[in-house]
Design brief:
The protein is mostly helical. It is built from five helices and no strands. The relative contact order is 0.10.
């Protein structure tokens, strides 16, 4: 039982490394190539860092702390569910920008400590979501010229 934090770190970093490698593979096998320049760069860096972290975890050269408690996992679970729905269904089904706005707003509402009964806190959440989406649109559509999943809304 004393090895639990190290094992948690090895398993988590191994899963993330597998995701990183699979994303890099997908980004390098898609066409047209020029549409995937930015994703290839990000996926490659992500995969290299994830593999590096996994190797450090296996070799026992990481400072792992106490691991993730059941309470912390319970607190993270709603956000993980939103992220899974976003990645596997919403981004493609609703379009990147619509799904991102909805997911960001839900996450902000779940984890914002402001009271849910105050109108001012809801207005603040809407304004933060709108600002976040403006930055996302400016970054991806205007600055980087990246293709995003497009379906129902945009």
């Amino acid at each position: 039982m004393t090895d639990l934090p190290r094992n948690q770190h090895i398993i988590a970093s191994g899963l993330i490394a597998a995701v990183g490698i699979s994303i890099a593979y997908v980004s390098f096998t898609q066409e047209p190539a020029e549409a995937f320049t930015f994703p290839r760069l990000i996926a490659s860096v992500f995969a290299v860092l994830a593999i590096w972290t996994f190797i450090k975890a296996v070799l026992g050269r990481t400072k792992v702390g106490n691991g993730i408690s059941v309470t912390a996992m319970r607190n993270m679970l709603p956000g993980l569910i939103v992220a899974i729905v976003y990645v596997f269904w919403a981004a493609k089904g609703l379009g990147f920008y619509t799904a991102t706005a909805i997911a960001f707003f839900i996450l902000l509402s779940l984890y914002d400590p402001a009271p849910h009964t105050a109108l001012k806190s809801w207005i603040k959440r809407i304004m933060i979501t709108a600002g976040f989406m403006a930055v996302m649109y400016g970054l991806f559509a205007l600055l980087l010229n990246v293709f995003t999943p497009r379906e129902i809304f945009f």
